[in-house]
Structures are given as structure tokens and as C-alpha cells.
Amino acid sequence: MAQHDHTFHAGERAVQRRAEVSSDWLESAAGFVRPAMPQQHREFFENLPMLFLGLLDPAGRPWCVSAFGPPGFVASPSADALVLQRAPVLVDELGLMLTPGSSVGLVGVDLSNRRRNRMNGRVRHASGDAITLAVDQSFGNCPQYIQTRSQTAAMAEPSAATGRSSSLADPTVRRIIESADTFFIASRAAGPLEGGSAGVDASHRGGRPGFLGINDDGSLSFPDFSGNRMFNTLGNIEGDGRVGLFLPDFETGEAVVLTGRASIDWSAERAGAFAGAERIVDVQPEEIWHATATLPMTAALAEPWPALEATGSWDEVRLAALKRDGYRHFRIVSKRRESDAITSFYLTPADGGPIEPHEAGQFLPIRLHDDDGPILRSYTISQAPNGHDYRLSIKREAHGRASRWLHDRLESGDLIEVASPAGDFVLDRGTQPIVMLSGGVGITPMVAMLDGLVSAQHSGAPRREVYFIHATRNSASRAFRGELEALARQYDWLHLFTAYSAPGAEDSLGHTHDIEARLSMEVLAGLLPFGGYQFYLCGPESFMRALYSGLRDMGIDRSHIHYEFFGAGELDDTEEKAATAELPTRATVTFAHSKVQTEWTAQSGTLLETAEASGLKPSHSCRSGKCGTCATRLIAGNVHYPRKPLISPAEGHVLTCCAVPMDVHIEIGL
């Protein structure tokens, strides 16, 4: 009989076969499962301030609980034994079995470096708080999906954990579950527990906050990402189904502890909502506890596992289910005139679902339908997230097909189609003073960022000095005057200045505006002492180019200048010109799905323009790299962006509206 047949029990082997794990790989993996701990594992456990254990209650249900103390509270007197000088939390409240021979699973994780090791065994002896564990299996795990955390020093005398029976109706329980990026899971083999693989197991799971979701029927679901292919947890679920979850709140030391029954959903469609997931695990809780003081330290997130950004969350999955072709219907609940040309449109979901979150400064792609067909545009969301609505403040352009339709034809109650917020023109995370420089309708992201700063300070964020400097023609064209002046009266950290280039008869210097001139570096020199600012620019191209050049000439580092720009090229295109000089003069471009091949030259423009010249009709909208509509798969070769896109495409994809070939042969999925 193969070695792995002795190492893995029937449930594990069934899942391995379902996942098409090769026999050769299992033979190799079985060699990593040892009957005793190597020296490095012994030293690893002895230096940890906490462990997570899987234990059974009298009904045979597994629970996952923590055990903690100062480093050294765990000892390894021999390679086949671990001694815990402190009992796990909630042992008495949950009636967990610590009698000799009781099965136990154990996992230790060093949150500072992602090291993780596991042990399955049995209780050899328990006396008072001291518990001696006999080792049946010892093995390490890879660092995947572990978030590193900056830990405070372990407490010399950790507080006693207390717990109470609870439910998903408890707001704290829901908060901990829905914000978790880490949890620990205990599971058990089916039938009599004989030790070794046929016992209790404890393991770690990690993902983006929200990867553990609460369903309408009270069940929980989480994606199962590609791992070590041993399938210890899934094998136990396949054979028995009973599991216990420990969900820590690393900021408070609280935890949600529950036991229930799990099942595996092998649907590729459902798992496909999470990048890297191979299946979904559903858990029906049977008993839920809310516990305090379950950790010996606080541990702030330092770095999430690098591959998590694209993995998804259940909120995103639910929002995606509400979309058709990437869009949802939103209703215009009100329109508000902001100036002689700018009107704000307030939008709420028409489907009754939640609003998708955004960062202040991002834009919203929308799709309209006029008499000539669909129109795709993107407009800045002119307020910070509020969980209720989006506000788009749009200037009516005389020749603007979309803006004229919005201003002239759509009213409160009408529907438009909305995609996901996007864009990276958002505030930095520092504490330096901020200078916001806007011209015309470029005020919209600045108003949103200011709104976000106000909300952040109400939530306890440190205050930041803000110089809000806006240029427009006169009071008739000035948007958000009342809103901004009210904020300036309320917050002494906000310094508001307005420059009019063509004051009207009703305008009065010192009352309606502060400066009568176009905004220039000379004007700024009279307003700012210039030292240690973060600058944000948005407005007409000539306005931004002049201010950007002036700031750079004054020695302001480019990393301190942020902008939203929709013209051709970059405000500072030195690096782009250097990269362009290295591009090929000719390249072969293959459009894989269309089975079209064409030659690209320096005069061909972007890949989108090259495709259109070849008779193709690829999807696109903004043509400036801010909406992502044109993204397609990059199959072969490399590309360059002469005009830096405002959003980054998904890994392995290219924004055709901004990209040109960098290699002489490229292939894309059009």
C-alpha cells in the first residue's frame, strides 16, 4: 500500500481524488508528515505567545479556541510531546474534552513572518492548567494567505477570557465575522477517532476582509483557495462535516467562537467569483459564542498576503449578482443646480441592494441610452462615501452628447446604468498639509476629498491643514460656494480661497472672491509659505500644465504632486519620452478571438485605434484609461503606456485605449 494511504484518512483521500491530486505528489507530501516534531518545530512552538487548538465537546462537536501566555508558556520536553502551561480559553464554559486520550489538533502561526506549523495528537495528561499533548503527526504549512501583523508585547499576565452564548443578531458578532481577514478552523474525522490523521485537526484560513460571508439563511460561506493539496480540513468535512471556527479581532482581543456543520460546494461558477478559489465551503452554525480577552496582544495589520487584492469578497459577489453586463440600474432621486453650467445628480440603487463603496476622489462609469444608442461616460463622485447615494456633479457642455442628455432630458425618477467606482486620484495616507488646486468643474474631486477629510476627523483621524484654492470665472460659474463656506466657518484647519478671472457686476472682491486674476504661481506664492505640502490638481489642461510646471520649477518633488488629467500624454512626460524612444518602429499585433493579424507602426496609435483600423469594434468608453471598459487579456508580448492610465488593469490584462506594443510580436484577446 502507498505511504500516503497510511498518512491520509478516507475522507482526505476522497477529496484528493475529486481534486485530481496526483499519486506522485501525494507520496511526496506524505513525506512531510512526521510522527514526531523536528527541532525547528519544537523551538517554533516554544517561542510563540499563542496557539489555536481544535478540541471536542461531550457531543463530539469540534471547537477552535486559543491558548496563550508569555513566550515559553509552551514547552517541548521531547520530540513527541508538547506541554501547555496554561489551559485554552473557554474550556470550562464549552465543556471541552481534556481527558487522557482525547484528540486535539493544533496550529501555531507567527504573525510577524507568516511561519506556520501544525500538530495533531492526543491529550496525554492534564493537571490544573498544565496539559501534556502526545504528538501523532507534525507538519509545516506554506505562508499563503497569512497577513503579517505588528504585535504589541505579549502580556505577562493575560486577562482571563470570558464568553457568552450569542447569535448573528448581535452587531458585534456580525462586525467581527464580516471584517475578518483571518480565522482558524477545527474539524474532525468521521467515526471513532484513532489518532493520527483520523483525529481532530486545526488549520488557518486567510483572505480579504469580507471573505467570510453571512448569508440570508444564517449560514456562513468562505472560498477555499489553492493550498498544500493535503486537504486535511476538507477531508474531515467530506467525512464528518462538523467544524468549529475561531474568528479573532486582533485590535480588541475579542473573538467569535462557533461550532456547526460544513459542506463543500464544488461548483466552478460559484468559486469563480473569487480569484484563486477552487471551491466554496458553507457552514451552518449551531452554537455561537462571543468571547473577550482571547488574545495576549493587539496586532495591527502590517501587510496583507500579496495575492489577496484580486481575490474578492462576498459583498462584491453580491453586488456583481445585481449587475447585468457589468451595470446596475440607479435612480435619479434629485437634481440640484450648483452653478450656471454644473448640476448635481443624486443616485440611489433602483434594485434595493447596497451601494458599492468608493474612495473620495474616484469616478463612476455610467451608461446612458439616447435616441442614437448607448453612451458610456465616467464622472467624478463629488462626495465622500456615505453608504446611501452617489452624487455626480456634471457640467453641461454645448457639444456634449452625454451631459446634454443628462441636463436636458433626465429628471428625478429616471434610471441610468452604473458600473463600479474606479480611479486612483485619492488622498494620500500621510499627515502633511494639503493644497487643493482646482479650475472649473475640476472642483468635483476636491469637494469629495474634503468631505472625506471631514468624515475621517469625526472618526478620530488626526487633523490636516487644507488650503482649498479654486479658480473660476465668477459667481455664476462657481459651484458649491455655500457648502464650502459653511465648512470653512466650522473648521479652522480649512483655508478657502477663490480666484475669479472675469468677475461679474454683482461680484465684490473680499466678499464673493479673494483674488481677481487667473490662478498662477505668483498668486500661489502670496497664499502659501511652500513647505511640506501634498498638492492635488484638477482642471483644464492649460491650467494644470502651468501649475505643475511652476511647482516643479520651485523644487516640489513630483511625488508630492497628484493630479487627475484627461489630456494626451502626462504633465511630466520625461520618463514616458525615454520609454517611447525604446519602442519598436513596427510590430505584429494578433487579435486572437477575431483571428485578425495586422502591422502596427508608430503612426498607428494605441492598440484600440489599431483594432478599429482593422475593422474591429472593441468595447471602450473614456479612451483615457480611467474606466477600464477597454481592458482585454494580454496573451503574448509586452506593452507600454505612453499615457499613464488612471486605473491599473487586472494582472494579465491590458488597457487597449492607452497601450502600444513594446515587443515586435504581441497578441491580445480581441
CATH fold description of the largest domain: Pnp Oxidase, Chain A
The mean pLDDT is: 88
Compute the number of strand runs. 36
The chain-level structural class is alpha+beta
CATH homolog superfamily of the largest domain: Electron Transport, Fmn-binding Protein, Chain A
Number of discrete domains: 4
User: Roughly what percent helix?
Assistant: 10-25%
Q: Please mark out the parts with pLDDT under 50 across 5 or more consecutive residues, or reply none.
A: none
Main sheet properties: 8 strands, antiparallel
**Which range does the strand content fall in?**
25-35%
Please name the CATH architecture of the largest domain.
Roll
Using only C-alpha atoms, the radius of gyration works out to: 30 Å
Cα distance, first to last residue?
Answer: 51 Å
What is the CATH level 1 assignment of the largest domain?
A: Mainly Beta
Number of helical elements? 16
Shape: globular
